[in-house]
Amino acid sequence: MKPSLRTAVTAAVTTALVAAGLSTPSPATAAPKAAIVAKYDYTAQVSDVVVHSPSMNRDIPVTVLSPKNKTKPAGVLYLLNGAGGGEDAANWLNKSDVVKFFAKKNVYVVIPMKGAFSYYTDWVRRDPVLGVNKWSTFLGKELPGVINKAYKTNGKNAIAGISSSATSVLNLAIQHKGLYKAVSAYSGCASTSSEMGKAYIKLVVETRGGAKVSNMWGPTNGPGWIKNDPVAHAAGLRGLAVYLSAATGLPGQYDSTRYVPKPAVLADQIILGGGIEAATRICTEDLANKLASLRIPATVDRPATGTHSWRYWQDQLHKSWPQMARKIGA
């Protein structure tokens, strides 16, 4: 289901619930607890739910992929989109085979469809452009309880993300100890307090998002950046099944006209995507080395070629899935 149609249907469902007195759009009377305020089933497998977040006082659309057998308890994979937060066309549903891939697997896949340029973290103050962002609170404390109540889950969770959200999933795993059994980070930059990490985050939040990074974690030379640096807090990943991946940025099998027929788009993927991927490889090695020094096991995949693009991330999801599946009973 395309995002535009899904958004329209979700809005219609929400309006119907409001009319029936089951929900309210008024911030003054918003639900005091996280709860599903709207739901629409597209197929037996794919549903959109709208979850109210008390910490942000707004409703968040979430796509849920259900297992074929809903009578048997299943684990949950929280799958985060990249910088666009699922609000643009560049998301897991549009750019990968997740629906088909998980169709016969015993797992619930939960994909938030909001959070553009937020790094899925708790911001220290409201941003004039992006508003209030308390994504760590929402994803770590509010949403899991709602999902566990609405679906027949087994209490075991994994989390995975790409690019900017590859940093987010590591921080979420560290900050919400015990919530996840496994974490997978594809093409991310975990060393957020390094100069490269800061530059990467500014590119996402300020250049692309139009917001201010100082509203996210405070001054770039302040403690907030170290507090949210997975490399600095890598010890918090002990006990989890950790999967990291990043390629070299050199053109690979998906960087051709066979997969990207438009020359301008292909050139952008090779030049810009290649440069970004090369940078994330350096960041990934920083975290891998830190984990090794702490004697924390991690699976690290280092493809010899590949750019910062979706087909490579789809491959990484497939490759990391068996490790996550074992941890969540899928």
TrEMBL record:
Signal sequence coordinates: 1-30
GO molecular function list: acyltransferase activity, transferring groups other than amino-acyl groups
Keywords assigned: Signal
Domain of life of the organism encoding this protein: Bacteria
Pfam families, A to Z: Esterase (PF00756)
Stored InterPro entries: AB_hydrolase_fold, Esterase-like, Mycobacterial_A85_antigen
Protein name: Esterase
Record organism: Gordonia spumicola
